[in-house]
Amino acid sequence: MKRRFIASALCGVYICSLVCGCANAQFDQLKKKLIRQKKEKLKPVQFLEEPVPRKNSEYYEEHILYFKTWNDTLIEFLGKNRKREVQAAREAERHLSALPKYLEPEYADKLQVIVSDYEKIAAPITVKTLPSSRHSSIARELNRLQLRVQRGFSFKEVKDYLRPDKTHIDLSAYQDDTSVTEPANENIEETSAQPENAPEEGATAVS
Questions:
Q1: Which of 7, 20, 114, 195 has the most C-beta neighbours closer than 10 Å?
Q2: What is the distance between the alpha carbons of residues 152 and 20, in angstroms, rounded to a whole number?
Q3: Closest-CA residue to 56 (of 154, 149, 167)
Q4: Domain residues of the chain, as ranges?
């Protein structure tokens, strides 16, 4: 009698453990289906593009275009907005001063004469406020020098007298403390700033 009871009890325990084991397995499977597993985020693949070397002709076109735009800004705000006229004078002088470095010596020397005349006018503007009685004469002189640059040193006039693209041009002497953008790994190392109404980089200058 006792043996039967013990055998029945052991059989019952075995059956209960078997049932519980199956129930737990089914519960785990159901849990995996209901709970979403976190998927690993794939990191985007980054491709590094090598900068395309630019030609000296492109830089010359940009400089002469920015010189014209900044010089027009200087004439417009001369005596009206001190901050704008100082900024325009600096940037116009900067871009004009860079132009001779792209030209063969013969043309560079001729353009340097105009650069020197422009510096004599622009430099005092950045140092002190000029009397209003001089504004008209200064504006006329700035406009005259701009016309000399456009007529004698437009890209159309000097495109056959540009220095070779592989020529390294040092423009460090023409840099000031004005915040500008510096191109990297290009044919020419230089700085450039654009006025608010200036075209984007790479724009073609109007001859």
A1: 114
A2: 98
A3: 167
A4: 56-174
Q: To 5 degrees, how large is the angle CA 141–CA 145–CA 148? A: 140
Other CB atoms within 10 Å distance of the CB of residue 179: 6
Structure tokens at 185: 């790994």
Of 140, 123, 116, 115, nearest in space to 86 by CA: 123
**What are the tens digits of pLDDT across the range 33-62?**
656 666 666 677 666 666 667 899 999 999
C-alpha–C-alpha distance, residues 130 and 188, integer Å: 36
State the pLDDT at residue 165. 84
Q: What pLDDT is stored for residue 11 in this prediction?
A: 59
Residue 128: the pLDDT is: 87
**Count of alpha carbons within 13 Å of 124, Cβ hemisphere only?**
11
**pLDDT given for residue 21 in this prediction:** 54
Distance from the Cα of residue 140 to its chain's centroid: 34
- The low-confidence residues of the chain, meaning pLDDT below 50, are 19, 173-174, 176-193, 198-207
